Amino acid sequence: MGSLFRSETMCLAQLFLQSGTAYECLSALGEKGLVQFRDLNQNVSSFQRKFVGEVKRCEELERILAYLVQEINRADIPLPEGETSLPAPPLKQVLEMQEQLQKLEVELREVTKNKEKLRKNLLELIEYTHMLRVTKTFVKRNVEFEPTYEEFPSLDGDSLLDYSCMQRLGAKLGFVSGLIHQGKVEAFEKMLWRVCKGYTILTYAELDEPLEDPETGEVIKWYVFLISFWGEQIGHKVKKICDCYHCHVYPYPNTAEERREIQEGLNTRIQDLHTVLHKTEDYLRQVLCKAAESVYTRVIQVKKMKAIYHILNMCSFDVTNKCLIAEVWCPEADLQGLRRALEEGSRESGATIPSFMNTIPTKETPPTLIRTNKFTEGFQNIVDAYGVGSYREVNPAVFTIITFPFLFAVMFGDCGHGFVMFLFALLLVLNENHPRLNQSQEIMRMFFHGRYILLLMGLFSVYTGLIYNDCFSKSVNLFGSGWSVAAMYSANHTPAERQEMVLWNDSVVRHSRLLQLDPSVPGVFRGPYPLGIDPIWNLATNRLTFLNSFKMKMSVILGIIHMTFGVVLGIFNHLHFRKKFNIYLVSIPELLFMLCMFGYLIFMIIYKWLVYSAETSRVAPSILIEFINMFLFPTSETSTLYSGQGHIQRLLLAVTALSVPVLFLGKPLFLLWLHNGRSCFGISRSGYTLVRKDSEEEVSLLGSQDIEEGTNQMEDGCREMTSEEFNFGEILMTQAIHSIEYCLGCISNTASYLRLWALSLAHAQLSDVLWAMLMRVGLRVDTTFGVLLLLPVIAVFAGLTVLILLIMEGLSAFLHAIRLHWVEFQNKFYVGAGTKFIPFSFRLLSSKFSDDVA
User: DSSP for 744-759?
Assistant: First the structure.
């Protein structure tokens, strides 16, 4: 509890690490995660530090391991997770591991390259066989025809496309055949026509089945084409166009015999390539399976080794370059563990001179460490999202554990909806060790990490639902109503009572649209409902008016109590930092201003509830009118809640008016008095100087003092302050801004808590509308079709309830509860200007390892 109420007490320690044992000592510290290192080489470039070569070596090993993981995943080989608790590899094994990994990478790259080359050749041969099969039907040529001329005579008067003319002249007819992508056929045909001016014959046909592209590996549809041309220049143009469109061109046989020989040779080569490729893939899989057994462990070891060298680059060497000096922030409770870790590292390295540490005094503000567990972590994250707490100030998370789910439940109060949320959160809590929940989608991970917040929100919503007597917008009569309808009948009363009271009879019941229960009639109101709202209000026409009055007053009461509690927590901060003058000159005036106005409003609300009963409610004065009259001082006599009310209200107003100038001027004048050398009280402190946003003037005043641990300063008086560090105008302006913000905030923040009433009303009305539009319609259908209709109606009702009332309304109430804590509650005492304690811990790297491997 003490650690959660305030951050851990920190100290600055100096580590002296022998050069031969520094690696092992940091490895031991990384396993325990006790300290946060400070960078002693901030002015040195990252490329000029001592261990930059070792960091580059680790990055090279990470690159090789990333390549191995990529190849293993591509081969669909499962990656077995090894031990994450393995220590960083000893320095003796680093070179051996690097050599093994580099040798494995070279072998894998060579085998993979050969495999890809074989696969590409196989795909090209398959394409060639399909091309020969399809082009066989394109052109019918004489087997006896053989070209007799290599020269091209002039053909000025003959058609170049006249095939008989070509035969007659014995000209050389050329062919280009291959495959082209389906989407390029039309453009390819147009380009051939325009460039070759019609001196080509293009024939193409679509393949029956898609083939894999040898270059990209993509399975696409192909077209086989055959281009007939005459002339050497036309042939060059055709080949260039084929290259431009990335066609896969293959030689075209001139004779049927040549075609048959090529086909037989292709079939033989394809069978050989299948055999060789299969053996290559088997060997590659064996190598990858062997590498997969240790790749996870090696990834973790390399990550740890790289982290150690990063920390070593933050250390500085002594003048002899034989000892490394490091400065760390360490919780005082973990100093013994730090010493044991250094001893363990020295013992593992076999050094004769052990490494050691000593604490050093400092005036710097330490980082903030608040230890959490799986239950408190979610609530601490809500507070840290506003700002990490300043060192040793009160931590709101311990109170947020109760106040946050309670304020959420006030806005979300419904028994049924809260129970569904509670069951969902309970399911997550019971299965929190399931590995798939941590590796699920982002939204599901958010629900999982906030499972304990959801659990308490659902549980508190069940409680407030019982108070509101709402269960899926319906009231539940658990204890019997405190109102009796039978007592309103005239037959149950004496003749004298019938004359004095307005009672019911059969005629009144039959002909009246509305019937009113009179609590002054004996027996009508028998006492309050034992728990929450009486269920009879669910039948009343003025139900909304009654609930609005109740929830609005409840919201004001909860808000004022919440804000007052925040001001009280500020007193604990002033006591801890030994600034008692802030208690007398800031906190007490703030409390008086708050309680004399809004605390008195709470008193009037509770007094009216206790003094006036249902029978006397007609003569009870209005709280709103009484509160307004408190500031207007009416001259005429008005009804009052109690005797002497006017005198008490004037006294409260006087105290409120006097607290404002004290709040504005008290602290600046007191600091000015201290600056002039007067004696003071309650501002001595020891330890670290806390830098806070709202106390720059105190820091400047206390900055010239000698602050040392173990000494009590200023017990008999205050030291004189240096004049150049004191600015009375700035202090006065800062305090004036703070006071104006507080005084106006008391009013605006109180009004802000009315969102509790507004969100609760909206949730109840949405639930009521959903019931009226779906369930009521389904339940009123006759028995013939009622059962068939009721099942889909229930399904739609359940779906809309989860989507609208649980998710959307729940998110809205969640955000409003966060705002009430951040703005209305925490700004009364919480600065949130600290820096988070980030220890050097290998556990923080483990999640990244699993992500990389996955």
Answer: HHHHHHHHHTTHHHHH
